[in-house]
Design a protein that fits this description.
Layout lengths: L12 H11 L13 H19 L5 H14 L4 H4 L18 H10 L2
Length: 112
Amino acid sequence: MSQGAWQQQVKRDADDVREFTVGAGQGSPEEPSVMSEEEVRFITKMIVDEVLELFATVHESTDAKNVLKGFVDARFFSSSQLSRCGDNDCSKDIQKIDAPEVDITAEQADAF
């Protein structure tokens, strides 16, 4: 190993994503920052599109949308209804996070 080789940085997937994003004319912050509502909606739509593509491998389009809608509808059940759902049928309600910006940034990253 040549002297200083340990200092060479390995290119990460994140570097490729950033390079693509900047190349597509989009900004890329130097530090993590809170996403705007518009950015969160855009990312969510992209994720839903990917989930529907995954469902398309085992469901017809309408069935896939209905399955996904069922997952979303299950999130709006009350706590008493949740107890009747079983372990895998429903999810708890998730409240809007009211926290310092650094915590919101962490929560947004954790969502991925």
